[in-house]
Amino acid sequence: MSLVRIKDICKINPQKEKATGKVSFIKMEDVSIDGRILNKEEKNYEDVSTGFSAFKDKDVLVAKITPCFENGKGAYVDGLLNGVGFGSTEFHVVRADERKILSKYLFYHLNCKTFRKYGEINMTGSAGQKRVPKDFIEKYKIFLPSMTEQEKIVEILSTWDLAIEKQEQLIEKKKEFKKGLMQRLLSGEFRFKEFKDKWKTIKLGEAFKERKETGFIDLELLAITTANGVVRRTEVDVKDTSSEDKSKYKRILPGDIGYNTMRMWQGVSGLSKYEGIVSPAYTILKPMDNINSLYMSYLFKVPKIINLFYRHSQGLVSDTLNLKYENFKGIKVCIPNSIEEQKKIADVFVNCDKEIELLEKELEALKLQKKGLMQRLLTGELRVKV
Predict the structure, then answer these.
(1) Taking 80 as the threshold, does the pLDDT of residue 242 lie above it?
(2) What percent of the chain has pLDDT over 90?
(3) Options 3.60.10.10, 3.90.220.20, 3.40.50.960, 3.90.1640.10; CATH of 2-144
(4) Taking every annotated instance into account, which residue ranges of this chain make up the domain Type I restriction modification DNA specificity (predicted)?
(5) CATH 3.40.1620.10 fits domain 198-337
(6) What's the predicted TM-score (pTM) here?
(7) Statement: residue 238 has pLDDT above 60
(8) Average pLDDT of 42-62?
(9) How far apart are CA 44 and CA 21, in angstroms?
(10) 3-state DSSP call for residue 336?
(11) For residues 309 and 322, what is the distance between their CA atoms, to the nearest angstrom?
(12) Which distant-in-sequence residues (6+ apart) come within 8 Å of 32 by Cβ?
């Protein structure tokens, strides 16, 4: 196994391939951070043949600009219309000399954490506009085993890719299944046989009072997110912009629902498992005794209900829309009459979420295992029998 420069076995940003008729077009957003092409557009060759990056089947794309490069954007290209494609000028195109290196083996090297780490160090340009220069890729050295060993390594890593892809598809199916269940169970279209009484239409002010308790400066700081609801502020990977003076921060208790007053129309709400304080920008809802707040937290994620939040929000443009409690409390919803039925419905979704969470943990384990395997196989630490 020898150590070689990429420029000695590949062409970087080669001349475009001529074509006629339709070709594929790939934008930066069409490429995932784990090396997959999510979408290809169909374009006329004449419309895109100048002013864009040009590539063909079996080329490897590498995002050159920050933060796309650091995030891992890039892809192995195949299945292009007429075998030719064009795309964002922010791609470097790397074409393998397949007499020396397999394109897919090259792709794994350029998608490896080590390559990205050293590329980030060698970026040039001003903040926000830094790019990986062509000469960094040209001079970057990789381990080059025999073609037979390259084939074996590609086979192994492709097996992990397939396992990851199948796990992601399973997660999406579970999410779609839950979405369908929510539509049927939260609308009353499907009901459990033991509940016979008619559902009731109420105003949300009959289900929740606003909690406006301040001055609890020693309580833990919490945040409310779109995906995970109420979480500890330390779990959110963003800069802490909270005020030093927490005297006006609002107290939230387990069982309360908090929502972002300016983003409730985007579904930013969640049930709290914690006692803590949140920014004054949030509205805190305290449930009445006959209300299962877990059930209501799922109801608040239904598109039809989110649309109601949008219609009742005040403001001239989306940036200024807000749903204060005074407007929230007048919104009408239809819910199960008994708290027992509310709870049983909520429990179904809790079980769905547990299944999805388990599958997502398994997915993360697969990705970590693949990353470790790549590191060992591509550096020669782990050799395969040929």
Answers:
(1) no
(2) 87
(3) 3.90.220.20
(4) 4-169, 198-367
(5) no
(6) 0.84
(7) no
(8) 95
(9) 6
(10) coil
(11) 9
(12) 38, 73, 75
The residue whose two tokens read 């997502």 is 360
Torsional sign, CA 34, 40, 44, 47: negative
Q: Would you state the pLDDT for residue 269?
A: 95
- Answer for the pair 374, 114: CB distance below 8 angstroms, yes or no: no
CA 16 remoteness from chain centre: 33
38 to 28, 41, 75, 159, 378: CA distances (angstroms): 10, 10, 10, 19, 26
Q: Which of 379, 289, 381 is nearest to 342 (CA)?
A: 289
What percent of the chain clears pLDDT 70, i.e. is strictly above it? Answer: 98
Q: How many helices (H) and strands (E) does the chain have?
A: 10, 20
Which secondary-structure segment (H or E) carries 135? helix 134-139
Running DSSP on this structure, what letter comes out for residue 27?
-
| Mean pLDDT of the 190-205 span | 95
> Are 349 and 271 in contact, with CB atoms under 8 Å apart?
no
Confidence of residue 282 (pLDDT cuts 50, 70, 90): very high
Asked if 171 and 364 touch (Cβ cutoff 8 Å), the reply is no
Contacts within 8 Å (CB) and 24+ apart, 237-242: 242/279
Cα–Cα distance, 196 to 198 (Å, whole number)? 7
- Closest to 266 in 3D by CA, of 229, 310, 231: 310
What residue ranges do the domains of the chain occupy?
2-144, 146-173+342-385, 198-337
Asked if 357 and 175 touch (Cβ cutoff 8 Å), the reply is no
Q: Do domains 2-144 and 198-337 have the same CATH topology?
A: yes
Residue 271, number of CB atoms within 10 A of its CB: 21
Question: Which DSSP symbol is given to 238?
Answer: S
